[in-house]
Specification:
The complex is a heterodimer of chains A (122) and B (187). Chain A has five helices and four strands. Chain A has 122 residues and is of the alpha+beta class. Classes of the chains: A alpha+beta (122), B alpha+beta (187).
């Protein structure tokens, strides 16, 4: 069993690192996690987003989930919301695409146009 | 849904939409022949009798994007497939308890899936909700309560990735301790 002591050690380490990052603007990734999304594989997609961000030690991106946004046929869907509020909707995702979005959109600030809802609906 | 962890992810979204700030996810194994009981309890806005009667109907939903809702019907189907059943208790203003029963040894009983990961994601996306996770079996039991963890965190968010990693590992250990991997034998 993991002990509370271990948790306290994590807390102490985090407190030390926190102050520097707190003021940075947060980007957000929101994954559609309604029945339609889950059935289409939204969970492994969210898992890939989290894992890729952790691997790259990116802490100023918030990953969360939302309900159905009404385009079930294009699930799994995720929205990337930039620090300035600009929103990009990515559709028909899988874990590989999620990792590429982290690399290109989050890290290099370049929208992966071919995965966007605009490209899918052409 | 191919495993229980996906159903949990799905059904809990209903609790979140119902405005719950306390959600508990309980897994219990008991009886002979053994049954597995999944119970999800929330203090959300609840449902009135009329809505409750019709809630297992796929064409009943509170959402507005379209008039089909499959979360509860799919869980009912998974339970029925394994010779079990689904029960829902709800009271407006008080909350909802949804319980799915599965015969553990039924050939069509779905596996647990990655429950620690599901719970990690739920906490990550909803850090302000008080989560209680309980596992029990005749052998042992396990409880994780995020309200009990928060005082130890001293201002560090429960959604911090290292904290979430600890929670995920602790829950995985809890499942191993209580169920010994038996429930997940068929993947």
């Amino acid at each position: 069993m993991k002990s509370i002591e271990e948790l306290k050690a994590i807390r102490d380490k985090t407190l030390k690192e926190m102050s520097i990052r707190d003021n940075e603007d947060k980007m957000r990734i929101v994954v559609g996690m309604a029945t339609c999304g889950i059935a289409a594989g939204a969970k492994p997609v969210m898992s890939a987003f989290i894992d890729e961000l952790n691997k790259r030690n990116i802490t100023n991106v918030n990953v969360s989930m939302t309900g159905c946004i009404g385009i079930c046929r294009l699930e799994p869907v995720a929205e990337v919301i930039d620090a300035n509020g600009e929103k990009t909707t990515y559709v028909k995702l899988n874990p590989e695409k999620a990792r590429r979005i982290v690399a290109e959109h989050i890290v290099n600030q370049r929208v992966v146009t071919e995965y966007t809802v605009g490209a899918a609906e052409k | 849904m191919k495993d229980l962890s996906l159903h949990i992810m799905d059904i809990v979204q209903n609790s979140i939409v119902a405005g719950a700030d306390k959600i508990s996810i309980n897994l219990n194994v008991k009886g002979d022949p053994q049954i597995l009981i999944l119970e999800i309890q929330d203090n959300g806005k609840g449902m009135d009798e009329e809505f409750l009667r019709e809630v297992t109907d796929p064409f009943k939903t509170s959402r507005t994007t379209r008039n089909v809702g499959l979360g509860i019907p799919l869980l009912a189907q998974s339970a029925n497939m394994a010779g079990g059943e689904l029960n829902i208790k709800s009271e407006p203003g008080k909350g909802t308890t949804i319980e799915a029963r599965f015969n553990i040894n039924h050939i069509d009983r779905i596996p647990l899936g990655d429950i620690p990961e599901t719970i990690k994601m739920l906490i990550m996306a909803n850090p302000n909700i008080s989560w209680t996770i309980r596992f029990s079996s005749p052998n042992d039991n396990f409880v994780l309560d995020t309200d009990e963890l928060k005082p130890h965190l001293d201002g560090v968010s429960i959604a911090n990735s290292s904290v979430l990693g600890w929670i995920q590992n602790t829950i995985a250990d809890g499942i191993k301790l209580v169920y010994g991997g038996v429930l997940d034998e068929v993947d």
